[in-house]
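Usage

Read records sequentially. Each one opens with the input sequence:
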Amino acid sequence: MQTAQKQSKKRQGRKEPSAIAPAPAIIPEETPAAAAAEAAERDVASSPAEPAVVRLDLNKIVTSAYNPRRNIREESLQELAESIRQVGVLQPICVRPKDEGYEIVYGERRYWAAALAGLPSIPAFVRNMTDAEAEDAAITENLQREDVTPLEEATAYKRALESGRHSVESLVGKFGKSEAYIRSRLKLNELIEELADLLDREEISVGVAIEIAKYDAPIQQEVYREHFAENCYASWKSARIKEIARRLYDRYMTKLSTYHFDKTDCATCMHNTANQVLFADCDGTCAGCQNRSCMVRKNEEYLLHRAVTLLQDDPRTVLATDGTMPSAVSEALETNGYHVEMLAYSSGDYGEAPDAPEEPDPAAYEDEEAFAAARAAYESDLAAFTELTRELEYLISEGRVRKYAVIGALDVDIRYAEVEEEQKEVVLDDGRKVVVAVLPESPIESLQQQDLRNRQTCYEHITSDMKDLFYETRITNKPLQKEEIQMFYYAVMKHLGDERLRQCGIKSREKWCVTPEERFAAAGRLTEKQHAALLRTFLLSFFRQNAPDYNCTDEVLDTKLMCRFADLNFEEQSRAVQQKYLSIFEKRHDRLQERIDGIRAQEEERLMAEMEQPEPEFEPEDLPAEQEETPAADDPQPALPTLIPVEPECDPNMEERSFDVAQAA
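and closes with the structure output:
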């Protein structure tokens, strides 16, 4: 019998039998609320060890919004109700007067179980409390129960902090828990619903739940779906806590050591796990960032700044990516007029610059002889490195090697690629076909070609959008302007045949069919407004059909006239279209011109340095003993051919002269 009573007491939330002994005095339930509270207070004042207990009608009691216990499991409530049917409510609940009845301070679970058991009343302590006192009492009572669940404990700590009357430090002193314990319980409030249900059903331990709760909701959702949901393909339910913590950290925690941006601010940031109690067992090598948005922003700013700096240091550099560059960096570069080239292969497949030899340290050698030998070897390696670097710089300037600044996910690396000579078939005057080698473009030529192409792209977009604008625009019948009439007759003459143009005294190679006779006859009967509308209709149709879509600039007459015609008739829309693409071109043009000017400045410096070097002196004996006979001044000199044909395999030394970037590295 005693064993059954102890079990019933435990189910009702009592710590020990002594917690309810000696039995408190019970005031009849008919006592009014105010009188009951007054009697209870008087009893407490006279005998604190024996608080007054009143028996209250369940219908006069209402629940409270301060109760941290929100979820009461049905099976647990049924179990407690059965216990109450057998032995009654052993531990009184606590209420406070409210309106004409009472409000529960703590003991809501016993209240619902008593109602489920069919009891008309329940023993209760009645206390006059403020809202703050009632909330603190509810939190304290719930945290001191033996059967409090981790989620209920987490809710209680959270409510205590949200009340503003407690801090983590005060909770540590109040409940005798460590700071890490309380912070870990607070983390449980951030569990997604699916994982919280698993913890509530004890399908995962509180330790596992705390490890998962350290990460954001999207990560928790992914972890649940892949490792804890029903029929998941790789369950972690049987894994140990430390193993789960390691898996989570390796997969989802961003280690700061992998990034190259300035981490000065990270040293004191609370998003750095090295500064958190929850990650106290992590040394400096595994410090990670929990503020992903800040980390991503810092990384993108670093990549953008480094790429632009490398381009400014050497204008011959080509910005490129192998597909790993963040999209935000690409958009920022394009917005500011920089072009980023997509590499055909991974950056690791391209060559690197020669490695500079390391200067020997005298302290690392036992004697002067060994150091002298190491020093001699170093100087030899340094001379070879200098020669390779000089040759590499020369080939870059000649366009035979391209220098790339490859923007990756975390850093910008310098890579090199040899530019192969193109082979072109040329027909000579005598009809013979030969293959000649076409030398690569120099960096300046390449940039100028890119600038031209950007200009063409600008006007290709203008033309495309302008034609759409022409299609949608309604024709006006306002008087024609002089320039519109000139455009019209130009369009007409451009589409007349050679014979017609010669009859008019104009020489032209343009061809077009003449307007049918019936239209010509009708044109003589047009009114002034019809005449103006017809001319503009023709010009709209002409520009839509004949303005070039590709390789066009503002120097192409048709393109120039099309834009001017648009300005004359619908200036606002025309300017909007042109400004949209011109602003992009101007930024790109400025960036390319900066690089062209930088290369020219470098070349001028190189030429000045060469001019300052003294001319070599030759002694008579240095001249060859036999010289070929100098041709007479009257002898005619053979004219040099414009193109020198080079057969693909006729020069055995060609392969030896080509620069191998990989060998140089």
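Summary fields computed downstream for this record:
- The radius of gyration is 44 Å.
- The first strand starts at residue 26 and ends at 27.
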